[in-house]
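Tutorial handout. Part one gives the primary structure; part two gives the three-dimensional structure as tokens.
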Amino acid sequence: MEVGIDSFASHLLQNGGERLSSTEAMHLLLEHIERADQVGLDVFGIGEHHRAEYLDSATAVILAAAAALTQRIRLTSAVTVLSAAGPVRVFQAFATLDLVSQGRAELVVGRGSSTEAFPLFGFSLSDYDELFSEKLGLLLAIRNEEKVRWSGKFRPALTGQGVYPRPAQAQLPIWLGVGGSPSRLCGPARWVCP
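Part two.
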């Protein structure tokens, strides 16, 4: 069994109820990750949001800073909103994190529990399931092959281009993050069903 912590990197409230500055909140988050490593936790995950109250829109950047402060703890997203992201860039960012952390990166991908990323990056919520399915397929193809041949509906085809850098680990761990009620998760075009 592994034990870990996830954070949304919110602006934390001080004892008196005042919000911390973004700089103070980020510094405190990095201290928490460093302390989690020191006490022997197995993993620390950072969520992804694109709203004013959170600092986690660039998860891989936060985790790379944490990698420089830690020795053994695994560093992961919790979750990367893959439906609204570019799988090539996601893979490159986490492969780079894996190199910086000397093989301690993991990636949890999902649809996300909020939808602000979709209009921000120009995607339609009507394509919610199809976007995720296609982008997960591409991300896994990139993880499995250095030079990728792939085609889909939402982006131009890859015709044998190499995707670099490659991670330190032989295969970057990619987990599927899900949440919600069984009726929402199971059904047409859903990934998790009993």
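Part three, for discussion. Residues 22-38 form the longest helix (17 residues). Strands lie at 4-7, 43-46, 74-77, 80-81, 105-110, 147-150, 158-162, 174-176.
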